[in-house]
Amino acid sequence: MNEVIEAGGEYFLPPDRHAENALWAIRLHGVLAIGVSELDAVCKWRTAAVAAHLAVRQLTSPAWSQPMAVET
Question: How far apart are alpha carbons 72 and 47 in whole angstroms?
Fold first, then answer.
């Protein structure tokens, strides 16, 4: 939790952490994840952050910007 806040993110704790319907949320570096527990939210955030990084990397890689070769 401290790492998220120190890095400029937001960490939302449920009012009643022991309630069955409690949700935890983490927003950091433009990535939002919501989980049914703190660990679940962290795991989902990591998965979403990796996916976002790979998507940006694919869109900005030189191979992506080159026209596709068509074999005849």
Answer: 40
> Can you name the residues that pair with 33 across neighbouring β-strands?
26
Distance of alpha carbon 43 from alpha carbon 58, whole angstroms: 23
Name the one residue in this structure whose structure tokens are 């022991």.
18
Kindly report the number of other CB atoms within 10 A of residue 30's CB atom: 9
List alpha helices for the chain, DSSP H. 2-6, 38-60, 62-65
The SS3 of residue 10 is strand
Question: What's the rounded Cα separation, in Å, for the pair 5 and 3?
Answer: 6
Rounded distance, CA 52 to CA 58, Å? 10
pLDDT tens-digit profile of 37-67?
Answer: 889 999 999 999 999 988 877 777 666 555 5
pTM, full prediction: 0.71
